[in-house]
Amino acid sequence: MSLTIVIGRGHSGTRAISHTLYASGVFMGNTLNRSGDKVPPQAMYDACRVFSRHVSWQGGLDWDFASLNEMPIDAEFQGLLDEYLADVIGDRSSRKGWKLPETTLVLPWIVRLFPDANYIYLVRDPRDSILGGHKTDDLADFGVTYPKTEDLFERRAISWKYQYDLVEATPKPARWLEVRFEDFILHQDRELTRLEQFLGFDLGRIIVRPDSVARWRNAEVVPDFDFLRPHFVDMDNV
């Protein structure tokens, strides 16, 4: 049995991978929304809130995730995760998985519970990732403490950084592949070859839209924060 877990902050392009896997015969849950999310998501949302109780805010834009890699996994979290994944775990398909951006918020425990799964991590220029609103914009909705701000883009940027830092702090499983959204859209065949080699089976081709890349160039307000700049994509080198 092959299990594939797609992670990445909301609006990072995870839907493209979810749609690709679905088009390739991978069971991604009984019900998917237009974004390719496995729904309903409420049990996972609640699991995220249980997880965040164990995250220590150090002030500013620093959080301590170290204990999450070693402490016992909260039984309440396990029960909520089992509820969310009941259809996937119970399905007899040889290839299955799921995609929900909020999975990123609990990645350390997901990796510990599913160490042998295939993990596909989507990254995207944060300027594009935070142009539009997403459920995870206000981390307080998931029990995460962070510097309060009335600036909508700053709130989204902090959420982006929190999730990036959480992924970085998570020991990587044996089967881990990072895919940049811009590469997948502009060089689909090349990136599909990488994914096929990683997963071990052929993938279908979905329609992609080149105009979804570097949308920030046409935005009325371009989000620009010092802590995001190291992650900006240089389109001249894509």
Q: How far from one another are the termini?
A: 35 Å
The CATH superfamily is P-loop containing nucleotide triphosphate hydrolases
CATH domain topology = Rossmann fold
Q: Any guess at the CATH architecture?
A: 3-Layer(aba) Sandwich
Q: Main sheet: which strands, in order across?
A: 4-1-5-6
H and E order: EHHEEHHEHEHHEHH
Secondary-structure topology with pairs:
Blueprint: E1 2-7, H1 14-23, H2 42-52, E2 56-59, E3 62-64, H3 75-84, H4 86-90, E4 95-99, H5 107-113, E5 118-123, H6 126-129, H7 152-168, E6 176-180, H8 181-186, H9 188-199
Parallel strand pairs: 1-4, 1-5, 5-6
Antiparallel strand pairs: 2-3
Helix pairs in contact: 2-3
Describe this protein with a few key phrases.
single chain, 238 residues, alpha/beta, Rossmann fold, four-stranded parallel beta sheet, two-stranded antiparallel sheet, 34% helix, globular
Provide a descriptive summary of the structure in words.
Strand 2 (56-59) and strand 3 form a beta hairpin. The chain has a single domain (2-237), classed as Rossmann fold (3-Layer(aba) Sandwich), CATH 3.40.50. The strands form two sheets. The protein has a four-stranded parallel beta sheet. The chain has a two-stranded antiparallel ribbon with strand order 2-3. The chain is 34% helix and 12% strand. It contains nine helices and six strands. Helix 2 runs antiparallel to helix 3. It has helices at 14-23, 42-52, 75-84, 86-90, 107-113, 126-129, 152-168, 181-186, 188-199, and strands at 2-7, 56-59, 62-64, 95-99, 118-123, 176-180. By secondary structure, the protein is of the alpha/beta class. It is globular and about 45 Å long.
